[in-house]
Prior knowledge:
The structure holds 2 protein chains of 2 kinds.
Chain A: E1 4-7, E2 16-22, H1 26-33, E3 34-36, E4 49-57, E5 60-70, E6 81-87, H2 90-102, E7 106-107, H3 112-119, H4 125-151, H5 153-176, H6 188-217, E8 219-225, H7 231-239, E9 257-263, E10 266-272, H8 282-296, E11 300-306, H9 313-321, E12 327-332, E13 347-350, H10 360-374, H11 384-405, H12 410-425, H13 432-443
Parallel strand pairs in A: 1-7, 8-10, 8-11, 11-12, 12-13
Antiparallel strand pairs in A: 1-2, 2-6, 3-4, 4-5, 5-6, 9-10
Helix pairs in contact in A: 4-5, 5-6, 5-12, 5-13, 6-11, 11-12
Chain B: E1 3-6, E2 9-12, H1 16-27, E3 32-36, E4 50-52, H2 56-66, H3 70-76, E5 78-84, E6 94-99, H4 101-114, E7 118-122, E8 125-130, E9 136-141, E10 146-148, E11 151-154, E12 163-166, E13 169-172, H5 184-190, E14 196-202, E15 205-207, E16 217-219, E17 243-247, H6 250-258, H7 281-287, E18 295-300, E19 307-311, H8 319-326, E20 337-339, E21 342-348, E22 366-368, H9 378-397, H10 410-421, H11 445-455, H12 461-483, E23 485-486, H13 490-498, E24 508-509, H14 510-514, H15 521-526, H16 536-565, H17 584-593, H18 598-603, H19 609-620
Parallel strand pairs in B: 1-10, 2-3, 2-11, 3-7, 11-22
Antiparallel strand pairs in B: 4-6, 5-6, 8-9, 9-10, 12-13, 12-21, 14-21, 15-19, 15-20, 16-17, 17-18, 18-19, 23-24
Helix pairs in contact in B: 1-9, 2-9, 2-11, 6-8, 12-16
Amino acid sequence: xxxxxxxxxxxxxxxxxxxxxxxxxxxxxxxxxxxxxxxxxxxxxxxxxxxxxxxxxxxxxxxxxxxxxxxxxxxxxxxxxxxxxxxxxxxxxxxxxxxxxxxxxxxxxxxxxxxxxxxxxxxxxxxxxxxxxxxxxxxxxxxxxxxxxxxxxxxxxxxxxxxxxxxxxxxxxxxxxxxxxxxxxxxxxxxxxxxxxxxxxxxxxxxxxxxxxxxxxxxxxxxxxxxxxxxxxxxxxxxxxxxxxxxxxxxxxxxxxxxxxxxxxxxxxxxxxxxxxxxxxxxxxxxxxxxxxxxxxxxxxxxxxxxxxxxxxxxxxxxxxxxxxxxxxxxxxxxxxxxxxxxxxxxxxxxxxxxxxxxxxxxxxxxxxxxxxxxxxxxxxxxxxxxxxxxxxxxxxxxxxxxxxxxxxxxxxxxxxxxxxxxxxxxxxxxxxxxxxxxxxxxxxxxx
Amino acid sequence: xxxxxxxxxxxxxxxxxxxxxxxxxxxxxxxxxxxxxxxxxxxxxxxxxxxxxxxxxxxxxxxxxxxxxxxxxxxxxxxxxxxxxxxxxxxxxxxxxxxxxxxxxxxxxxxxxxxxxxxxxxxxxxxxxxxxxxxxxxxxxxxxxxxxxxxxxxxxxxxxxxxxxxxxxxxxxxxxxxxxxxxxxxxxxxxxxxxxxxxxxxxxxxxxxxxxxxxxxxxxxxxxxxxxxxxxxxxxxxxxxxxxxxxxxxxxxxxxxxxxxxxxxxxxxxxxxxxxxxxxxxxxxxxxxxxxxxxxxxxxxxxxxxxxxxxxxxxxxxxxxxxxxxxxxxxxxxxxxxxxxxxxxxxxxxxxxxxxxxxxxxxxxxxxxxxxxxxxxxxxxxxxxxxxxxxxxxxxxxxxxxxxxxxxxxxxxxxxxxxxxxxxxxxxxxxxxxxxxxxxxxxxxxxxxxxxxxxxxxxxxxxxxxxxxxxxxxxxxxxxxxxxxxxxxxxxxxxxxxxxxxxxxxxxxxxxxxxxxxxxxxxxxxxxxxxxxxxxxxxxxxxxxxxxxxxxxxxxxxxxxxxxxxxxxxxxxxxxxxxxxxxxxxxxxxxxxxxxxxxxxxxxxxxxxxxxxxxxxxxxxxxxxx
Lengths: 448, 626
């Protein structure tokens, strides 16, 4: 059985979240995902043992986690299981799941853990009945989702790519079936070009996962600026209520405050970070570190500058260090001064957070930055499961290109293409093999 | 009615399916009758004089591995053996043999006659008798003679209400001018078996002296040829016959186009569904207009006849058109037709009414195999015949039926496709039909199936000992390669470079070198990793196991989900309309297919993982009971 993983806590923000991995490779995958703080491998843990550690990506720590190990058959599913408990942010949890999937797990289907528990004799019928409602709900939900996906742009794109694969596979199946004539489309260069083109379409889909996520979960927005530039009043302006404490004492806002705001068609998930300032205060140092970390992981940075103070050297340094994502500079407090902003490498909006009546300028700017993501022409990947299927398809095409390059036998090539097409059609349950065979008969003159 | 005999199993029809069914049943200890309309047609090849070919060669090897007889007979009567798809990857290599069809008939007739417990009887079976419980209790012939039996296997081929068409003329007939079986169809209908019409066709046979071979491309057998049967060594079969390839041309196509009105198919006389994979020449010309030529395979039909078979040229156009179009082909200017091409229409079932045992769902003791089940091809027929014969005898003996999984074999795949999806046109096996293709090589059919054949008492002691020895040698040889370390040195790297692959700088295990596409067994011999005088079959098996293992493990992992689902049975009484949450498409498809377990359900096109999850929920919530 493949090793599966899923977020097992409700798909909503919460205090903590848990990712469950189950299957033969569960503990090994957990080990590749989590670095224990004590430096020992996760695989060294016995059943029912847990350890503290970190999940990192490219050297950046995503979250502190607790990993708990269950050894078969003493687990819910009866298989080796690892559970990674992390802090409850949806984004971080999904990031960790993505890493778990990259490390070799496949996304669990609806009710998969319960299914496995049942197969392995871990739960009786009566016990199973208790969880039935949940699975049924999941099943029905994913069915609805599948139907949506089937009709949606994503479904169309996935179908088009798998149809193109099926066409190649039909030609291969024809040729592998003692064909009279070699189909010219199977020449190595033609095949390579075709598969590469499909590969890049899959990669575009993979990228669109991020914009799809932004549409659904909102644009992660970090509010940044030097102390007292007016970040909290910007926050209050955007949120429409007293959420952060507005005060004249620099450094009042230490904890990150999150808020969702809707500006026209956009949802911003705002985090107001501590004013950035070199400070001797240890507590505030942590806050500053968090703020920069928050900014690095954001989809958008709103950088607040006090128009009365102007652009300081520190502002320039900080703005210079923000390279990964779009930045909107908010030239704040225009109600108090006529000072005009200097030329900056970022779009600059003039506002007066304490008295500004409308968000129109922000909405216009957002539309410029994210317009393509919202009124999208690229189909968006809806969920992690679809994203994983697309990644799996893409990986299979990479394998296929490798086989073509090394002049490997065609039966192996057909297999890798089959894996890719199957992944793409997994959501709607369409049987690829039947389409391939129909393709052979309709497109080629077979038979003696 | 007079009772003429008492048997355990009655097999109706002595073609490729019937022979396997009868011989297996008899060898397993059941007193078996094999009925045929003509003793002179046992094991007849009314179409191409060949056995094997792409995917079909796999089937023959599997039949042999299970203890069937087609492989041994085909080896004995072989005139030319070739391995197809040599350059396309080991999993699709497929042996194909040109056969002496008269000799094959004689061989099979004699084999049946000499089989203990087997009684070959010339009779047309007209009815199947059921007892008060609706189970088979006898068969009746066309003259009223009654034979008691507890199980019957229908292997009627194209005989049931057979009608032969040449042009717009037709007459009731079985293949090769045999009498058709006119009575059984009606009796089956009375028993609630639904019949439908399929059609197939065969090309003409021409006289060898009328062909100018200098205009044709010859095709010879392989030098080092394999055998179908695992009991025969390499190079065992005779391999001296020559086949030839001719080509149609624009003139031929023009003759066909101007005579389409003469075709019973295009004229609407034939309603039977023809095979998609084996189109008539008029179909090919109409559907693939851009093709300038089509190949015609000129094949000898036997050593003691001058009849030549024209593969790829089946047609139902009238005789005079057949002659006219053939004469346009280069090399055929003076062609003499000996048997005209014809189309044949016949009764068959939609196999969805069968279980995986090939037993009817609604009639205990009744089994069927071959073209009657909607397939086409001698090999597909024989494969089903073997399983039906094993299971009819298992039914009589009170043993567990043999149901081969898709993972085990092409035979299992064939039967699973038939009984879960049914078929809309005569079904032919293709390698593309199996998702386990990479592990279903023709050469490892014995490893996959001989233990099963042994369990069903079709593998004798001597053969079992040979098989066990071979298995052991393969395991040891594979293990040895995995443990052999090759160290980098000039001699080693010279071998690698001459093979066109990168040299090594670190010591490596021999198996990792063997996984490189450029490296074969012969290189391991040069590297001193294996002995130069290993048995070539064993060397090939080891090589392929190592080369394919990572792909096969991925293949199996991808399919593991299905295997797990196969353990959950679905009662036949499930009312899918009552399962809350299923899409109406799913309800309709599942109601039609009546899957026996969840794996079969999941394989139905359009049934999504979410549908399966909902069915599981429903089953576990006790849905099937309430």
